[in-house]
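Changelog note: in this version the structure field was regenerated for every chain. One regenerated record is shown below for reference.
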Amino acid sequence: MTTVVEEQVEVLLADLQLERSGLAPHDPEPTAGRASRLSEPLAALGLTAFVAELRGQAPCVPGVHSLLDLEADEAGREVSYRLRRAEARAAAPEIWAWLRRCRDSAPSGRPWWTVGSALPLPADSVRTMAAVTAPVPDLTPVTAAWAAQCGLRRHTAEYNWRWLMLGKGLPLPAGRPLPRLNQLINGLVQQAREYGLLPRAHHVQLIRRPNTPSMVMPVRLPGLSLLSVPTAVTPVTVQYLQHEIAHLTEHGVRPARAALLDRWAFDPLRSEGWALLVEHLAASPALLVRLGLSDDTAEAVARFLGQEERFSRGMMAVDLALDRDLEDCASTAEALEAAAAHAARTGLRWAPELLLLRQTSMLNWRSYLAGYAWRDTVLTELTRHFGPQWELRDDAWAALLSALAGTGSAADFLHDLHTGQADEEPGPVIHDERSKETP
């Protein structure tokens, strides 16, 4: 049973998340005073570092503030790119010093990218992420295809890459536009409810911010989450929203009676692997048609999403390769030289200072790359037990949600999924007509 003090801590966590998102807290008492008053129970619950992070008191990760202009023409994107690259170049010594400090301060046997984690990470998932590898691919075929489709003058120039990754210039069939944001959200939410992915007791507060990636933050678990979405729809918006709905699911099925720390500590491998599993469905033309896209537009978007995944995984492979090489670097200059060498292996002109900047997100990149492999393992298991159209079966979703409802690691999820399937015979396809429905 939740104690009065734990309830006060939960309200504090909620209000800190709201404040961090620019929203008004529920409790009128300032959060700083409450954090000080609750310092002892926070320490006993293992939440001191997490509260410090939410309050902006954790050590800052170096970064840059300039944003790439995604709406301007090619010349405008080049200007914003030059600003971002100049800022990254100026910050390179600070970024390198931060990376070295993390490496030097990591306890024996613990990877540097776990240093400073505000909540505990499962040891088995950390081992999996540390062991993940991926060959650095030649990415020019993907970017050349994008550039040719978009009619870029300088093809794969680096200032166009994020614009290309979002599919901003992807030509779609005439008169077959992408759905408006409200229509897209409503369609995805309806589909998620059909699959049982959004518990009706879990509330979602929507925040719209232009030119920002989709993001979900838990506020009360299981109870309320914030969903930040961009204001414009691009070909990847459906994929990103599907990804975030998966995170909403993980928030919503957290056991209400679990210990406070267990409710808030998410295994990044399991979380990202689960979200990649649900996101995988967005690459299905049938699903895209159900969301309001025409057949030919759905085919074009699905093809693009496959290309985007290959490109993103390729860039993460570069990050891992650079991470290994940085261990032997002794200066900023050597680090940038190593980054330039790996950029050349992709066939692209990626700025070495921007690759070095990406190293500050190494936990994310390893979570994703290991998460792709974890996702593929789950897909194999689902297909083996429920058939190639497993996503149309209620019993498949029930098995997934049963495994997700625990607070264990990615390995625990796989064990629970396998055990749950072994206890029952495959049932019939219940919703085999879903692909013919409209949102």
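Spot check on this record: The two ends are 40 Å apart (CA to CA). The chain is about 55% helix and 5% strand.
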